[in-house]
Amino acid sequence: MTTVSPAANPTETSSKGLGFLKNNLREYGLLMSLIVIMGFFQVMTNGTLFQPLNLTNLILQNSYIIVMALGMLLVIVAGHIDLSVGSVCGFVGAVAAVLMVDYNLNFALTGLICLLLGAIIGAAQGYWVAFYKIPAFIVTLAGMLVFRGLTLVVLGGASVGPFPPEFQLLSTGFIPDPFGGESLKILSLILGLAMALALLLTKVTGRAERTKHGMENEPLAFFWIKNLVFVAMIAAFSYLLSSYRGLPNVLIVMLVLMLLYDFVTSKTIVGRRVYALGGNEKAARLSGINTDRLTFLTFINMGVLAALAGLIFAARLNTATPKAGLGFELDVIAACFIGGASASGGVGKVLGAVIGAFIMGVMNNGMSIMGIGIDWQQVIKGLVLLAAVFFDVYNKKK
Q1: pTM score, two decimals?
Q2: For residue range 27-39, what is the model confidence (pLDDT) as tens digits?
């Protein structure tokens, strides 16, 4: 006798879909928020937001924030905070300026020295947090003051520049087009479309693997809607950027880092241990994880990324100034929290931090185009940050 399995009840399927959406409201809400905010400012700026020149500036203006947000995400997931990243960014930029301008050091060697300096700074701060259990808030607050002061010392209170043209390409250069496109940079468009296709294939393959091993998957409709929206956005932005000067070099650096950190946090043992550390440090230690060393490494990682951000920022300005990096730590931390990281640790995704950074960037850019003063911009950003943290706490209580 052949048994025919009953068809899925549409009401039951709909209920499961609503339940999934409710449990993952933060992730989907973040994407919808970015789309709504971009649409709002596109209308309010009379189409200026999506102009190729403005999109390029938007990427360049937020590149160093996104780079530091990747490191800050791991620090926050591990249950800590780093208030010194803006000062470290400015200090490393100042050191790079002195080495290249005053001592005529090669730009590549300067970059390596500065990244090593960032690692040493991260290690110095992480040492007190990891092995002496001094709260990270206090250690990095002290670091913020120390490196802000050292920036003034290194620069002598004056700006130093300009830099070699090769160094400036880090932040102001674009991918060359061997096809000789005039109105459209062909290679940049091909790379952009290839990235969109690679993203879609990766997601489809990942879903197939989870299904094969009997793991829970998001409803098919949600899966396709979310990923097709991402692919469409990447393809559209690639076309717009290609119609101007092509893909910026710094965008490629950002994408490589995003893919690397997404892989580390989701596919490696170290990544899973960082989440375990932030979720419950005592339980992680009892399970055999060396929590002190892991905390130490997260701060070293943060120091290296802050140094890289300092190089990118200095290259963009073509000069190092005593006030470089001022307030960056607030935008970086806000990007992580808006992107879904939990203030109590153990929760957060790389993509969320990147989207959070773009939300902050689009708001800054859009409000500036609209002529809103810096005073009200600060008020609005503060309210958005508060709302994001409230949403996280409210969901946890439920």
Answers
A1: 0.89
A2: 667 778 888 888 8
